[in-house]
């Protein structure tokens, strides 16, 4: 089965052949072409489909549509759109060719610096320019909060209202994809937090931002820290402490530590035998499903089947005997059983 978005699929991807980094280079060229002309290089028409053109039609020179495009940029795109993956430019060549454009044409730009797509390259360690916040923080060079960092007793103590405002604004920034700014804001608030409860709440918010940004190793450390603190304060069955366990397990699965992820999901499900609210039910079933997938990926089919059967029983109990997921679980178990015969 061919999987992908047709206007940006390489010839080999269009033919459902093996794909690799060269396919990404081809797709990037299609995106760049569309950014510069308003249309991808190939259009489905009466002559053929997207796939037909990707496989058979020569790459159209971009200067036919945009004569003002420099020749070296046209040559770059043609090299990226080569039909043969082996002849396509590799990632380092493309990066080296595009990087000089980061520093060109500064004069007369009307784009606000915050939205300048060149910022990750012009300021690789600083992210986008810091957005002013209503909390009166002084922007500083942010270092990710250490798990055991102590509050700055020389700073004015953070109030409950300021902590709430910081968490809410950070959530909005993260929702807008401004993860560096969200982390900066929370790190500044954590630095001033002298109350342990406020400190832990803000660490949890920072962990969520790291998780959403894809920094799963950093997020796992933070979830572990605040989860341990909440467990000590409120008990192992505390809902927020369990939430930390769940996300720490998700992090470990994301960066490939299957053994630790299995242990973490087991610990989580052991403390949530009968969740009540809808979101807790979804997390509980997802944790068991991840156990089944992780065991199957490691070819531990007996354990995978046991987890899948546990998932079926929990789904029937928590979502009812008519839950549509039951049929999918039965199909998964049937496929696993073929490996144990």
Enumerate the spans where pLDDT stays under 50 for 5 or more consecutive residues: 124-152
Number of domains: 2
Overall pLDDT metric: 83
Shape: flat
Number of strands: 0
Please name the CATH topology of the largest domain.
Serine Threonine Protein Phosphatase 5, Tetratricopeptide repeat
Radius of gyration: 25 Å
Strand fraction equals: under 5%
Number of helices: 15
CATH 4th-level superfamily of the largest domain: Tetratricopeptide repeat domain
CATH class division of the largest domain: Mainly Alpha
SSE order: HHHHHHHHHHHHHHH
The CATH architecture of the largest domain: Alpha Horseshoe
| Protein structure class | mainly alpha
The helix content, as a percent range, equals 55-70%
The major beta sheet can be summarized as: none
Distance from N terminus to C terminus (CA atoms, Å) equals: 28 Å
Describe the SSE topology.
Elements: H1 11-14, H2 21-37, H3 50-56, H4 71-80, H5 91-98, H6 119-122, H7 160-175, H8 179-192, H9 196-212, H10 216-234, H11 239-254, H12 258-270, H13 278-297, H14 301-319, H15 325-337
Helix pairs in contact: 7-8, 7-9, 8-9, 9-10, 10-11, 11-12, 12-13, 13-14, 14-15
Give short descriptive properties of this protein:
single chain; 341 residues; mainly alpha; Transferase(Phosphotransferase), domain 1; Serine Threonine Protein Phosphatase 5, Tetratricopeptide repeat; 2 domains; flat
Structural commentary:
The protein has 341 residues and is mainly α. The chain folds into two domains: 6-103, Orthogonal Bundle (Transferase(Phosphotransferase), domain 1), CATH 1.10.510.10; 144-337, Serine Threonine Protein Phosphatase 5, Tetratricopeptide repeat (Alpha Horseshoe), CATH 1.25.40.10. It is built from 15 helices and no strands. It is flat and about 70 Å long. The two termini are 28 Å apart.
């Amino acid at each position: 089965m061919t999987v992908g978005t047709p206007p940006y699929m390489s010839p080999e991807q269009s033919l459902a052949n093996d794909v690799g980094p060269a396919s990404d280079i081809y797709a990037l060229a299609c995106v760049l072409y569309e950014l510069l002309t308003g249309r991808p290089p190939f259009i489905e028409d009466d002559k053929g489909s997207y796939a037909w053109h990707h496989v058979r039609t020569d790459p159209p020179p971009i200067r036919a549509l945009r004569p003002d495009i420099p020749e070296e940029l046209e040559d770059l795109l043609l090299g990226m759109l080569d039909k043969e993956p082996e002849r396509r430019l590799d990632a380092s060549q493309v990066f080296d060719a595009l990087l000089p454009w980061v520093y060109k044409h500064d004069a007369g730009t009307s784009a606000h610096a915050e939205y300048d797509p060149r910022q990750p390259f012009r300021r690789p360690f600083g992210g986008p320019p810091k957005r002013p916040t209503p909390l009166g923080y002084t922007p500083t060079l942010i270092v990710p909060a250490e798990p055991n960092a102590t509050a700055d007793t020389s700073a004015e103590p953070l109030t409950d209202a300021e902590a709430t405002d910081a968490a809410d604004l950070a959530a909005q920034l993260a929702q807008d994809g401004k993860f560096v700014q969200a982390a900066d804001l929370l790190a500044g608030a954590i630095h001033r937090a002298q109350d342990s409860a406020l400190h832990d709440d803000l660490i949890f918010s920072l962990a969520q931002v790291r998780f959403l940004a894809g920094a799963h190793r950093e997020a796992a450390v933070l979830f572990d820290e605040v989860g341990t603190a909440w467990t000590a304060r409120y008990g192992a069955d505390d809902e927020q402490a369990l939430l930390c366990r769940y996300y720490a397990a998700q992090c470990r699965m994301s960066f490939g530590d299957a053994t630790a992820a299995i242990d973490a999901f087991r610990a989580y499900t052991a403390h949530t035998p009968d969740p009540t609210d809808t979101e807790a039910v979804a997390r509980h079933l997802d944790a068991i499903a991840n156990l089944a997938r992780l065991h199957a990926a490691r070819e531990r089919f007996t354990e995978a089947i046991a987890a899948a059967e546990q998932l079926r029983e929990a789904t029937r109990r928590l979502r009812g005997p008519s839950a549509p997921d039951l049929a999918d679980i039965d199909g998964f178990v049937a496929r696993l059983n073929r490996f144990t015969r």
